[in-house]
Amino acid sequence: MRRRRTRRHRNIRKVEKAVSMSDLLIKLSGSRFGAGVVKLLGLPAPVELARSEGPYAEQPLTGKKILLGGSQNGYAMERLRQIARDAGAVPLESADGGPDILIMDATGCTNPSDYRALYDFFHPLMRSIARNARVLMVAALPAASGDPIAAATARGIEGFSRSLAKELGPRGATVNLAYVASDAIDRLVGVVHFFCGVQTTYVTGQALHVTSQVAAPASLVYHGALKAKVALVTGSARGIGRATAERLAQEGVQVICLDIPAASAALHETCRAIGAIPLLLNIASPDAPRQLMDFFKERFGRLDILVHNAGITRDKTLANMKEQSWDQVVDINFSAMAAIDRMLLSENILRDQARLVYLSSISGVAGNFGQTNYALTKAALIGYVAAQAPLLAGRGICVNAVAPGFIETAMTRDMPFMAREIGRRLNSVKQGGQPRDVAELITFLCTPGACGISGETIRVCGQGLVGA
Ligand code: NAD
Question: Is the complex ipTM more than 0.95?
Fold first, then answer.
């Protein structure tokens, strides 16, 4: 009996190891034989997702075949057409060419009969949409209309987009929705570049608002726009923080990488690799805000980008949770960030036009078993950015949160096998995201082209079912 159990245990370990090794299922599904085996066993068959390795190109959609559709009386079509042209995309007249990008201007949908335009555009195309295609839906801001039917009609497009994302996700395609105010259509440029570009990889099934609440900078182009900006990325010795620091450095940003003294070796290694400046500091120490203020005042006189990435988990059910675990999570994941912001904003170190990005989590959207403390803080960040955005809009400052789902990092590697496999597969693309995927969204939110987006929380979760 004992021997049988040991053998079983060994077999389980073997399967665990195989599956956790850089996601064996993706590799298997990539070959004809492997795909057959995966199908036979009834396993999910994730496709290899398209990713970018370099900085933003001057024309981010170069050579991509794009098809635009629209409902009658939409107000964004002309602008979208021009943005696509300027970005180097190749316009298609019909679906015959197998489009890489589809954009639907649904701003004219003001009553249910207008929905037919969505069916007429997408239905004939569904079988020819390419792997890793990008779909961007553009709709009117529901709140902008005084008419309940028009508002409801606009809001319905969200249900359509999220469902389409689920249908196209297995192909590695993304579908996102931008609600745009009629006075903010110029701000669609950055939105199109990102959500129709390769960098969107693990961001799908999202709906965001594009408004004119923050004054637009002179240029909205994102190629080269971050050169010589000064950025602080907290918790950047490893994981998502490190990937973000690397990604920003690729854009020519002077990055300051912060982490706790215990992570010194890894932090210095990150900094050496990307030419960043290391800063050893516990963000939850009482004098951290002042130390940061002194540092930036002396070295740069300013800070342009602040990525509040450092975060911890101390998971236990509430019944088993120790006071210390509760307090630590609240201190590091929320209180410390708010204290740092207060100091840097009031002392004008965070200047006009600055960009602030916070790492929330899908646990903060939906809650999670054993994470009452963690989800509390991550939900608090969602509320924090929504409340801060209008207060800082007058200074041209954008404040947003990103909420990762299952990302392949040290944090998720330490999860029990079954919980990890469930987290990894329960999403529309049937796989975990990479730290780089989160870094791409953060970097985009730091660009001038994202000036229409503030107060939002955007998930990077492959449309994870948690918080769906
Ligand atoms: P990670 O544990 O790999 O890295 C976090 C880094 O923050 C570490 O280097 C750590 O030393 C640092 N840090 C912790 N406490 C600190 C403090 N007091 N002062 C300074 N630095 C501190 O985490 P990750 O997976 O890269 O996640 C990064 C962020 O994204 C976290 O806020 C996390 O909650 C969030 N997130 C991650 C996932 C995921 O799947 N990995 C999912 C949702 C949200």
Answer: yes
User: Is the Cβ atom of 239 under 6 angstroms away from ligand 1?
Assistant: yes
pTM, full prediction:
0.93
Please give the residue range of the domain that contains residue 134.
Answer: 65-210
What average pLDDT score do residues 290-296 get? 98
DSSP string, 375-392: HHHHHHHHHHHHHHHHHH
**Helix, strand or coil, per DSSP, at residue 109:** coil
Nearest of 122, 78, 93, 103 to residue 193 by alpha carbon: 103
In this structure, the answer to whether residues 404 and 374 fall within a common structural domain is yes
Among 240, 292, 328, 374, which is best to mutate for testing ligand 1, by the most ligand atoms less than 8 A from CB?
240
47 occurs within a structural domain = no
CATH number assigned to the domain comprising residue 157: 3.40.50.720
Q: Is residue 224 part of a domain?
A: no
Tokens at 91, concatenated: 């316009």
DSSP character for 262? G
Ligand 1 centre to CA of 427 (Å) is 22
Q: How many structural domains compose the chain? A: 3
Which ligand 1 atom minimizes the distance to the CA of 333? 32
Which residues in 360-463 belong to E strands, given as ranges? 398-404, 457-460
> Which residues are catalytic, by number?
374
Mean pLDDT of 257-267: 98
Is the domain of 24 the same as that of 79? no
Q: How far is the C-alpha of 234 from the C-alpha of 277, rounded, in Å?
A: 12
- Which of ligand 1's atoms lies nearest the C-alpha of 235? 7
Q: From the CA of 86, how far away is ligand 1's center (Å)?
A: 38
> DSSP readout, 30-65?
TSHHHHHHHHHTT---PPPPP---S---SSTTTT-E
